[in-house]
Amino acid sequence: MYRNNKKDLKNFFQRSYDDNFELFSKNTVNGLLRSLFEPIAANNAVSLILTRFKHTNSLEGIIKRLEYCSNVEMYSFLDYDNILKDDFVETEFVIITSQRYNAVLIWDYSDSKDKNETKLYIRLNSKDVNEVFETVKTRLKVNLDDKFYSFRPERRENALLNDAVYNVLKMLNENIKENEFNSKEQELIANKLDVKTDKTQQDTNIRHCCHEIKNQLSVIDIYAKILEKQFGDDQNIALIQKSVSLIRLQLEDLRANDNLNFKDKNLADVIKSSMEVFNKILPQKNNTIKFIDNASGDLFVYIDEDRIFTIINNIVKNANESTSNDEIEIALDCNDKFAKIYIKNHGEKIPEDIQPKLFEEGFSTKQGGWGVGLNVCQKYLASHLGSIKLVKSDDCETQFLVMLPISHR
Fold first, then answer.
1. Burial of 388 by CB count in 10 Å (0-12 exposed, 13-18 middle, 19+ buried)?
2. CB hemisphere CA count around 216 (13 angstroms)
3. Would you list the DSSP string of 89-143?
4. CA 254, CA 359: separation in Å to the nearest integer?
5. How does pLDDT run across 346-400, given as a tens digit for each residue?
6. What gap in Å lies between CA 130 and CA 163, rounded to an integer?
7. CB 259 within 8 A of CB 251
8. Whole-prediction pTM value?
9. What are phi and psi of 232, to 5 degrees?
10. Contact status, residue 93 vs residue 36, Cβ threshold 8 Å
């Protein structure tokens, strides 16, 4: 650790992370700060708080409350007149010493590829709070030793406490980053809605495209036959004709989207009907299936029911094959724009190294498998402006999430 004669906070921060590669979202950091500030603001607890924030938009409310607390003293290091212009200025931090607890947080977005993520150094009731204070206090114009050390942290490390807090923070951070990703994904999809209008336009575009391409293929096919009469059995001509045949097949696949039978359906009814298929299959492995409706009322989606049947049945079939003596669960939920179908079981974990490959065409974890099931699900959902992803797979459970745009409620 750096003692009083080592006035380099950034090195202190970086040395503390030699073996740590966890990145924390800005929302995680801000949430942690609010949770530390809230008990002080709510109780007007006698406290000294030293901060260096570059951006405080999401914390303005709680900071204003602290400023109105008569027993709280806050000092900001953002004013360059109060600090030395060295590598210290790139680092953001909070130091709290109070009747209730002592804490230090240090983070730095300047080296991150994603400016929304950072490494985070956090200690509660630890002697590290003292050492960080000794590092930064020389930048202050006033001497705060007496106030700070009136609530001096204990000299020991409190390693168990800090490890426990850090592990809980990591779990919360994973959920926050997942929610951030889902929000961005939903926003992108939502920009394509109204679902019905967009799907109708998509079908029209497909028909026009197929028609024009087929016309040009017919011309190419005619000239290929003329060349064949002139030059006989020529390999190049055969390749042209083969290419034309392959393009025709691709057009048929493209036109398959135009054959989808879209209707407004109550999604809960679709799920229940799909589950009936497994009433005789699941007992063979002593598995059961249950449906949980958290949608609070009828939830309608504009879908081809047969395709959604296929998607749900494919995931449930995979779940049944990977577990026994288990309860497979389908849960329906929603937000303002999307219906969410969660399907989970408690069977064997999907290895982490193959999880990113699950939706690739031709990839299968089963011996002799074709590797088309989940890939087909993904393609069907794309035609519905929906999505599918693996939410988690660990020693406790495996869970998939299917999302579909809501047409009305």
1. buried
2. 8
3. GG-EEEEEEESS-EEEEEE--TT-SSTTEE-EEEEESSHHHHHHHHHHGGG-SS-
4. 20
5. 988 888 888 888 887 766 665 444 345 788 888 888 888 889 999 998 888 999 9
6. 19
7. no
8. 0.45
9. 75, -150
10. no
